[in-house]
Amino acid sequence: MDTTYPQRTFAYQPCAEQRQAGGAVPAVHPVAVVGAGPVGLAAAIDLAQRGVPVVVLDDDCTLATGSRAICFAKRTLDILDRLGCGERVADKGVSWHVGKVFFGDAQVYSFDLLPEADHRRPAFINLQQYYLEGFLVDRAAELPGIELRWRHRVTGVVPGPDEVALTVSTPDGDYVLHTRYVVAADGAHSGVRQCLGLESKGRVFRDRFLIADVKMAAPFPAERWFWFDPPFNRNQSALLHRQPDNVWRIDFQLGWDADPETEKQPERVVPRIRAMLGDKVAFTLEWVSVYTFCCQRMDAFRHGRVLFAGDAAHRVSPFGARGANSGVQDAENLAWKLALVLAGQAGDALLDSYASEREAAADENIRHSTRSTDFITPKSAVSRTFRDAVLRLARRHAFARQLVNSGRLSLPTVLAASPLNTPDADSFAGAMVPGAPCVDAPLLRNGTAGSGWLLGELGGDFTLMVFGDGSAIPSDVRHKLATGAVPVRILLVLAPDQQAASPQGASCVTDSEGLLARRYDGRDGTCYLIRPDQHVCARWRAFDTDAVYAALLRALCRPPDSQPH
Fold first, then answer.
1. In terms of domains, do 45 and 144 share one?
2. What is the structure's pLDDT at 512?
3. CATH no. for residue 475?
4. At a CB cut-off of 8 Å and minimum separation 6, what does 334 contact?
5. I want to staple 290 with a disulfide (CB 3.0 to 4.6 A). Which of 260, 392, 438, 506 is the partner?
6. 164-170 and 153-159 as β-strands: parallel, antiparallel, unpaired?
7. Model confidence over 104-121: pLDDT tens digits?
8. What's the CATH number where 42 sits?
9. Quick one: which of 198, 153, 159, 161 has its CA closest to 182?
10. What is the reported pLDDT for 446?
11. Distance CA 116, CA 94 (A)
12. Is 153 within 8 Å of 12 (Cβ atoms)?
């Protein structure tokens, strides 16, 4: 097979613990991240950007083999922007937002995943996982607070009341690393999980799919095409996605009785692809794999000072692009909380909120993934008859299209039940409820068109977004919010004809097209308190000092009578 992907290898290096003299007191690291895949690297970069030193341990020394995760959703792209590598992903990746569903050889319907304009990032970007991992490794190397240790495999985990002791195996022998917290992002077969005697529970689906990365010059557009019962793979399904470098991802449903090793052989794969593409399209194989669906998760994502993220905590079938996207969102949810707890600025219960919020998100993803899998692979003749009837109706009737499920594509979870939310006391319209992830909108900064986007202005701290000139916020309160132990940035959102009377202690942007006000139901004086991971945690129609401080304390899991500033 020909390959175009970068064969990057990283050198093993002995670490300080291995060079340490026998009588020396071992250092205790703030955080050890186990796993240098997209989730572990995202967590490490986020923590380092917040000033938390991180050791990353990985048992390998290369990037991912084959494309693996390829569809990165808008929410993940927004997170990658904050991690400092969003532009690299956008420049290399293939943007898309249209999906098409086929039944047999006929198109049933198409859909648009980003029907409204004026968002910085597209609905999805397709990019091979090895490129994303490479960009994240490069970004990690730019930060002084990250130590990447390749070929350092965790073989033992001993939790304690104040720290965790990890036994790490290397080519030079074993050593013990002491850390206050462990982020276990070491994949579906997590060694950390096994060391602790924990397991993931759920459902394994009796079906198999073939993945083929095919290099070819094809005229197909950058869209997601999904076939039910196509003429080239009768009684099964297929999926086509475009990736960079003229590499196309093709998935073929095989059925449970297929032998994985046999089906991976080129003499079996090539005829399948020729049946799909025809004899006139020249192609070469880059990578082939066979996988089985499963939807599983751990009962709890937090076990004392060990916190699980990504596939180590939960797994879903690949249809819907919910694996890597939800894992990167795990990392974003956890990093700011861990940083504040380590700094003594938040209560320990804030880490419990990581577990409860991301467990709820995993349950939502598993529900969607299970329903997709049941629709794609009917388990009885009656189920298949129902599915095929839905597909026939969907050609002409919009109501039936709501029942078609070729993979409900990844959307961020609204954390409506989060203990960090302050319930609304005022009436609002629209989707920006407490717990919702913030949506983007274009802004003017210093009167310059195209100079700003809301999510870039929010950054990675607590932000109080105020519609209007902010004159209702006393200057001493602005100062306390901005300079507190947990700083709260003030962002004034001005109408086109408005100026801030006293912008000291606040940033000002202009909602020149009124989109931000419409998307957030913002009126003059409306305030939103937004978390560091850019979820709404409270909102009011008018500024109230006590209400803002109470909401901030709640979002930090601190007692209501403590002082956030």
1. yes
2. 85
3. 3.40.30.10
4. 43, 183, 307, 309, 351, 354, 358
5. 260
6. antiparallel
7. 999 999 988 877 788 899
8. 3.50.50.60
9. 159
10. 62
11. 19
12. no
How is residue 203 written in tokens? 């459902």
Span 501-513, mean pLDDT?
81
pLDDT average, residue stretch 490-509: 83
Tokens encoding 426: 């005022």
Q: What is the pLDDT of residue 82?
A: 96
Q: Could you give the number of structural domains in the chain?
A: 2
Write down the residue that tokens 């560091």 correspond to: 532
Nearest alpha-carbon partner for 72 in 42, 107, 33, 117: 42
Q: Which amino acid is at 33?
A: V
Burial (Cβ within 10 Å: 0-12, 13-18, ≥19) of residue 399: exposed
Asked if 66 and 184 sit in the same domain, the reply is yes
**Six token digits for residue 337:** 């909380």
CA distance 74 to 125: 8
Average pLDDT over residues 256-261: 89
In the three-class reduction of DSSP (H, G, I as helix; E, B as strand; rest coil), residue 84 is classed as coil
Does residue 334 fall inside a structural domain? yes
- Judging by DSSP bridges, how do beta strands 28-34 and 173-184 pair with one another? parallel
Per DSSP bridges, beta strands 98-103 and 71-73 are: unpaired
Q: Are 394 and 108 in contact (CB under 8 A)?
A: yes
DSSP bridge partners of 96? 124
Q: Do 191 and 58 fall within a single domain? A: yes
How far is 4 from 245, CA to CA, in rounded Å? 8
Q: Which of 369, 384, 415 is the last residue of a domain?
A: 369
Question: What gap in Å lies between CA 354 and CA 415, rounded to an integer?
Answer: 11
Average pLDDT, the chain: 91
Identify which has the larger pLDDT, 560 or 495: 495
- Whether 206 shows a pLDDT value over 90: the answer reads no
Give the per-residue pLDDT at 4: 67
Does position 542 have pLDDT exceeding 90, yes or no? yes
34 near 13, Cβ under 8 Å? no
Other beta carbons within 10 Å of 148: 19
Closest CA to 71 of 251, 323, 309: 323
Q: Residue 465: give the domain boundaries.
A: 442-555
Q: What pLDDT does residue 21 have? A: 62
Which residues, including other chains, have CB under 8 Å from residue 83's CB and lie 6 or more apart? 42, 45, 46, 49, 136, 139
Q: Edge-to-edge strand order for the sheet containing 200-216?
A: 106-112, 98-103, 224-228, 237-243, 247-253, 200-216, 283-298, 314-315
pLDDT for 421: 98
255 occurs within a structural domain:
no
